[in-house]
Write a structure and sequence with these properties.
Blueprint lengths: L2 H11 L5 E4 L4 H10 L6 H12 L8 E6 L1 H4 L9 H8 L2 E5 L4 E3 L7 E3 L5 H11 L3 E8 L8 H20 L3 E8 L7 H21 L8 E2 L16 H15 L6 E4 L6 H14 L7 E5 L1 H11 L6 H18 L14
Parallel strand pairs: 1-2, 1-10, 2-3, 3-6, 6-7, 7-8, 8-9, 9-10
Antiparallel strand pairs: 4-5
Helix pairs in contact: 7-8, 8-9, 9-10, 10-11, 10-12, 11-12
The protein binds 2-O-methyl-1,6-di-O-phosphono-D-mannitol.
Length: about 350
């Protein structure tokens, strides 16, 4: 694949008014989400849930691409059409999570490093053959007493850059996801410091590994107060501090930015994205969404594993996709939350 093709895929993923549906939960994570709803985490239930998401009528109005998990990309809709093929026909670009999870970082209590580089070249070639055109790797940075350490940030940034270079060699657009966790009682300013340090280290490593930024998408967390912080920042403060942090650390030629929701409420995740786009019309990169929970949650609650609830669940997914697509243009307002799904 040429650079032009990588740039073309990246541009299509962050196209105006659309974002990414992250549906790449590993089996343990999917199991946790199902358990809360009393749904058994069987292969068939996971397949049925992913089919429900992908067959939502007109989803491609607001969703440019969807990230699948290894099990999912090998599955099909009920008529036997493989998911990736079905998505292609619907105008939704297939993506794939290729990390193998965040594991304890030796020598750094309380910190994680994401694994999955071994054999990645071969796995990417296989996924490309199945239809994946972009990939995702998530690194986890925890804020706590004396953490994150430089060692943890560097180890994760280096792995993200090695992954991204392998993706581009395979003709696959890398989504680079350094998530600074929302868990904890830290202030928004502490989150700014950690996010800034993380992003600057990640972009230094991407440069060192010769990753082409115009064929790369960043999936960052927002600069936000910790969940247990007594002082919760306003929507405007989150928007301003997040944009300031991005402008400080991210080169202008990056193809685009698609945020994760990271445990924010559905409405807050939409309002924050909207505020950034409404207040900053002249940013060097498109700002959009790559949400999992903040897109799927209302639909999952309604579905509850029951076939007869599928159509109602799809309407809720479509509604959240529409609200976030609108927020990616800075045109959302709270009253739209009350519109019938
Ligand atoms: C941070 O998680 C990613 C975005 O999801 P949210 O919008 O819910 O924060 C998400 O793509 C995540 O990487 C997947 O759910 C996979 O997670 P696991 O832990 O199963 O690898």
């Amino acid at each position: 694949m040429t650079l032009q093709e990588l740039q073309g895929t990246a541009k299509a993923v962050v196209t105006a008014g659309k974002g990414i549906l992250a549906m790449d939960e590993s089996n343990p994570t999917c199991g946790k989400r199902f358990k809360k709803m009393g749904i058994e985490s069987t292969v068939e239930n996971r397949r049925a849930w992913r089919e429900l998401l992908l067959t939502t009528p007109n989803l491609s109005n607001f969703i440019s691409g969807a990230i699948l998990y290894d099990e999912t990309i090998r599955q099909s809709i009920a008529d036997g059409t493989p998911f990736a093929q079905y998505m292609g026909k619907q105008g939704i670009i297939p993506g794939i999570k290729v990390d193998t999870g965040a594991k304890d970082l030796a020598g750094f209590p309380g910190e994680k490093v994401t694994e999955g580089l071994d054999g990645l070249r071969e796995r990417l070639a296989e996924y490309k053959g199945i239809g994946a055109r972009f990939a995702k790797w998530r690194a986890v940075i925890t804020i706590g007493n004396g953490i994150p350490s430089n060692g943890c940030i560097h180890a994760n940034a280096h792995a993200l850059a090695r992954y991204a270079a392998l993706c581009q060699e395979a003709g696959i657009v890398p989504i680079v996801e350094p998530e600074v966790l929302i868990d904890g009682d830290h202030t928004i300013d502490r989150c700014y410091e950690v996010t800034s340090e993380t992003l600057s280290t990640v972009f230094a490593e991407l440069k060192a590994q010769r990753v082409l930024l115009d064929g790369t998408i960043l999936k960052p967390s927002m600069v936000i107060s910790g969940l247990d912080c007594p002082q919760q920042a306003s929507v405007e403060e989150v928007a301003e501090k997040t944009v300031r942090c991005l402008l400080k650390n991210i080169p202008k030629n990056l193809a685009g930015i698609a945020f994760l929701s990271g445990g924010q409420s559905n409405e807050r995740a939409t309002a924050h994205l909207n505020a950034m786009n409404a207040r900053h019309k002249d940013l060097p990169w498109p700002l959009t969404f790559s949400y999992a929970r903040a897109l799927q949650q209302p639909a999952l609650e309604t579905w509850s594993g029951k076939k007869e609830n599928a159509a109602a669940a799809q309407k809720l997914l479509y509604h959240r996709a529409k609200l976030n697509g609108t927020a990616s243009m800075g045109q959302y307002n709270e009253t739209m939350e009350k519109e019938a799904a």
